[in-house]
Amino acid sequence: MSYTNIRGVDHYYEWIRESSASTEKPVMVFLHGWGGSTRYWQNTAEALSPWFHCLLYDLRGFGRSRLPQENHLDYELETYADDLAILLENLNLEEVYINAHSMGASIATLFLNRYRERVRKAILTCSGIFAYDEKAFTVFHKAGTLVAKFRPQWLRKIPQVDRLFISRFLHRPLPRHISQAFLEDYLMADEEATIGTIYTSVSKKAAEIMPDEFSKISIPTLLVSGEYDKIIPAKMGAHAASFSEKVYHLVMPRTAHFPMLEDKDTYLRNVKEFLEIQPAS
Fold this sequence. Notes:
There is one protein chain. The chain is an alpha/beta fold. It is about 40% helix and about 15% strand. It has 11 helices and 8 strands. It has helices spanning about 40-50, 75-90, 105-115, 135-150, 160-165, 175-190, 190-200, 205-215, 235-240, 260, 265-275, and strands at about 1-5, 10-15, 25-30, 55, 95-100, 120-125, 220-225, 245-250. It has an 8-stranded mixed β-sheet with strand order 1-2-4-3-5-6-7-8, with helices on both faces. β5, α3 and β6 form a beta-alpha-beta unit. α2 (about 75-90) packs across α3 (about 105-115), α4 runs antiparallel to α7 (about 190-200) and α5 (about 160-165) crosses α6. It is globular, with a radius of gyration of 18 Å.
């Protein structure tokens, strides 16, 4: 297990690459979403490893990037974007590709504009722009906080609770080991980070700044939406993509919030086409 210190927090990261791979391969960095970890990106990274050295890491307060007892950092998305910049510096990576999901895609969008010289191409999976609604946001924050506070470890022992937990994110069922990993990641996440990012990722500020952030995207970007995504509906992705001619929007049929897991083959085919990569020899 590998860790690197970013502003006082030990961040977990791992490489997925072919053992005989050339050091000349470009690097693709993967960012996970709220309540998750690197684990749900592993299959995608393995499939892309013939062409990329794939770097996966857990965002601060999630997965294995545990918060210290004294933590003075905020949970603004911009701060997480700066965390990524420090990660790249620590690992001596000058230029990368990015594939980011959900909340991670919002962080990546900010990163693209703050550090545009560091990214060749980007894939934003399940991203979009929320319209601000004070009442709806208030209800969401209150409900999210209650859910985040109620995470007893005995939940994992209840039969089928993992499938129930992930069902609202999916249109197609996933193998049991994946749904179990999702529940474990959620129960493992730090409460302060879990609640803090609820308020920053779905907020008046985010609704106000993200249109401008999407309009500033100047590198080739693929935005992938799931046709039946209830978390970030495809129309929000289309709205976000409309702000920049550099952003191409793709809606994947019969998928929801995890298209890369629900229909891996279609997802990879579109990603490879966007990246203009040839079949591995």
